[in-house]
Amino acid sequence: MEKYVMALDQGTTSSRCILFDHAGRIASIAQMEFTQYYPQPGWVEHDAMEIWSSQYGVAMEAMAKLGVTADNIAAIGITNQRETTIVWERATGKPICHAIVWQCRRTAQMVDAVKAAGYGDMIREKTGLVPDAYFSASKIAWILENIPGAMERAQNGELMFGNVDTWLIYNLSGKRLHVTDYTNASRTMLFNIHTLEWDDELLDLFEVPKCMLPKVVPSSAIYGMTDKLILGGEIPIAGAAGDQQSALFGQCCFEPGSVKNTYGTGCFLLMNTGHEAVDSKNGLVTTIAASTSGEVEYALEGSVFIGGAVIQWLRDEMRMIRTAKETSDYAERVEDSAGVYLVPAFTGMGAPYWNQYARGTIVGVTRGCKKEHFIRAALESIAYQSSDLIRAMEEDAGHKLTELKVDGGASANNFLLQFQADIIGSKVLRPECVETTALGAAYLAGLAVGYWKDKDEIRENWQLGRTFEPSMDEEKRVALRNGWKRAIHAAQVWAQDDSLYME
Ligand code: ADP
């Protein structure tokens, strides 16, 4: 009987299920978008039940499309939007409020207060993270403080916390398993990435009762079986990793020094640093990478909050385009962006700037600026933000990047990748299969159950789709980058305390 590995890829805007065959090819795929809630400016929420129902729905759909049943699934691997925080009742499995999404800025002031009280260095040393509202810790604290009775119930052991991996595994297992993998734990800002334990000092600081936390497990291991009522059979749940660590694994970036950039809702650049947890001098964070060995491996990471999301914004809020795809046609209709720069800091700026209060900024607009220039500036902003991360990583690593492996929804855009190659002056490699996030989860699960023998077998599956060679001359590159730096500066100035300008 033909066997497949099922990857559940629970992203920020959609839930996806892919069945991969032994060659790492997509045998079946199903996808469903779900609702985004923006209750206040800068706030972002999801309905955790909708996350689960959409994920469950696409799992069934992917099996039905291929005409297979649970017996054909060798294992399930999970990859997920990270940091997004869900708190639910132990007794019923019902969430007590909406999930607070990684992009949500509601706890920015809480994190500022923690930093002002002098805890920044301690947090950084233990968790590898730059303290920010982006990570789960302050989001859990917010829920416990603001949902009536939540703190007391959590202390009594009545509530459970999980990121999306934990939530899906919990539901798949018929509410039996409460686990998270190392990569997801490393994004909570409550986990010590060196001792590999939940950290009591951090739990005290954010007032999070330990009894609500999941057990931390390796990214590739059999955690348990699905409840047979869910997918019609017992399937090993055998792998989990945060989406970015999963993509690093799916791109076969197994060696220290190898790098990938994912162009999804946000952009995420990760470099494998092997068994060493490298401390960044340039605003990147240190995180746990997905690994199959007994020992954990680490990665350096830089993130851009608004990557492909700027294109969604053009589509849904600005209503300038009907589909994301048509942006490359618009961009190619003009020579350049006519001096327009768009800094899409809608939810603040991540690495290497880390400014929680920055907001979107558009500079250089002249009377001749057309929709085409604006769309081009939006696409270019994705590449500029990524190139800032690449510069930071090159400085931390002490050498220039020779090639960049890319993936994610927006990596389908040829204009974007050519501009990326031009602006960083390095080759950009797009694999045949850009679903590397899902592929990574499938590999982690498939390795745990012996579907794939080892990493060498997996490496043979990586196929190059297209290479983008840099072709811009140095003078132009420098001029464009300098314009971008000025635009960033403008966004930072706007974010400053405005008392300077008050009358
Ligand atoms: P996620 O997993 O974060 O939900 P995906 O990897 O599915 O994201 O990528 C979706 C993002 O990519 C969306 O923000 C969308 O606007 C953007 N996108 C998709 N196709 C294109 C394209 N051809 N050009 C530019 N952006 C695109």
Structure write-up:
The chain is an alpha+beta fold and about 500 residues long. The strands form seven sheets. It has a seven-stranded mixed sheet with strand order 17-18-16-15-21-22-23. It starts with a strand and ends in an 8-residue tail after the last helix. Adenosine-5'-diphosphate binds next to α11.
The average pLDDT is 93
- Structural class, by secondary structure, is alpha+beta
Kindly provide the radius of gyration, computed on alpha-carbon positions and rounded to a whole number of angstroms: 22 Å
Give start-end ranges of low-pLDDT stretches.
none
First-last Cα distance: 77 Å
Oligomer: single chain
- The helix content, as a percent range, equals 25-40%
Q: How is the main sheet built?
A: 7 strands, mixed
Total helices: the number is 17
Indicate the overall shape: globular
Report the count of strand segments: 23
**Which molecules other than protein and nucleic acid are bound?**
adenosine-5'-diphosphate
Record the strand order, biggest sheet. Answer: 17-18-16-15-21-22-23
Share of residues in strands: 15-25%
